[in-house]
Amino acid sequence: MIDTVNFRLTTAEAGGVDFLGEIPRYLDSVAEHLHEDGQLTITGRLGGLKVSLSRYQMKVGEGSLCKWYLGDNYQTMSRGDVAGAIESLSDALHVPMEKADVCRMDIGQSFVMKCPTSAYLNHLGFLNYSTRLEQPNSLYYQQKDRQLCFYDKNKEQKSRHEAVPELYEGKNVLRYEQRYTSRLSKRLNVPRMTGELLPEPTFYRSLLERWRGDYERIQKINDITLNFRAMRTKRELHKMGVLSLVEKQGGQVAMLEQINEAVKRGDLTRKQAYDLRQEVNAACMMGAGLTEQSGLIAELNEKVATAARFNC
Q1: How far is Cα 24 from Cα 27, in angstroms, rounded to an integer?
Q2: What is the mean pLDDT of residues 136-147?
Q3: What torsion do the CA atoms of 119, 296, 299, 153 make, to the nearest 10 degrees?
Q4: How many Cα atoms within 13 Å fall on the side-chain side of residue 114?
Q5: Is 280:256 a contact under the CB 8 Å cutoff?
Q6: Which of 23, 157, 224, 292 has its C-alpha lying 20 to 30 A from 44's C-alpha?
Q7: What is the pLDDT of residues 40-71, one digit of tens each?
Q8: Quick check: 40 and 54 in contact, CB under 8 A?
Q9: What are 111's strand-pairing partners?
């Protein structure tokens, strides 16, 4: 499930290899760049990966390792594939890429869904300590040093003017990715994040558990069905009223956005808005048979859980 990986390898880790003198012969589209301080850098391509060279270090990435190794990133890289990709990358560049530091890493899976991808995005609510960002065909949860992304894989592929694999043409393909963008060692609680560590069994399983765990922490927006047979108290009646209002206003996210807009207009104080948000969130999260789980969310929950379980 590992997709994009950015590596950085120093000359010391590479056994003293002359990056500027040796590596360009293995690359395509080679270009030299002489900077104002007199330092030379050389860039080139290794298939879909960009390689940047200086006297002291080599950077490899800015592209899908999965696509480079398997041909497309609709497929899923197993732990064995990750080990094979790093070995192949080492052979292609004639340096030990298992010793390279990993500076960025994406973990992702593409799911063929029953319905259009936008229908599933509408049922993904808020996530603590994250900024929820909606785009026309995607949804992002921005966190410090990482990002969760849900998007229409086929539309993304076509926007890049790349062919959709025949197996996925005409299908509803939802992609879920977890992107680690910096400070990977601290975020993943390891002394050093290297290529050698990526396919290590215990570590690889921990990555998939984090990928699944962050998805599970997203508040899901259920289909609201008012069940009067389950109503027993005035408090439940109050919650049902809130749920009915939330449904009428277009759902939990739309309701919370209206509250935020009211604060900006000065119609609500921050304390009043906080109290209202708490009521809306509590009503949407309650059980007791007053809401039912969305069939769409049940489908996505199962696919995420199955992917994490079987890709270990």
Answers
A1: 5
A2: 91
A3: 0
A4: 8
A5: yes
A6: 157
A7: 999 999 999 999 999 999 999 989 999 999 99
A8: yes
A9: 174
Give residue for tokens 């007199």.
Answer: 38
| Structure-token pair, residue 144 | 């410090």
The letter for the amino acid at 311 is: N
Distance (Å, rounded) from C-alpha 34 to C-alpha 273? 55
Which residues have a Cβ under 8 Å from the Cβ of 271 and sit 6 or more positions away?
Answer: none
Q: Are 61 and 103 in contact (CB under 8 A)?
A: yes
Q: For the whole prediction, is pTM greater than 0.85? A: no
Which 3 state secondary structure label does DSSP give 224? coil
The tens digit of pLDDT for each residue in 252-268 reads 777 888 899 899 999 99
Residue 103: which H helix or E strand, with range?
strand 101-113
Tokens of 193: 């994040």
Q: Is the pLDDT of residue 169 over 80?
A: yes
CA 37 distance to own-chain centroid: 38
Two tokens, residue 12:
């010391």
Find tokens 């120093």 and name the residue. 10
CB 191 within 8 A of CB 185: yes
Measured between alpha carbons, how far is 248 from 256 in angstroms, rounded to an integer?
13
According to the model, what pLDDT value does residue 129 have?
85
Mean pLDDT throughout 185-190?
93
Lookup: tokens for 312: 């270990």
Tokens of 76: 């899923």
Consecutive H or E run containing 152: strand 146-152
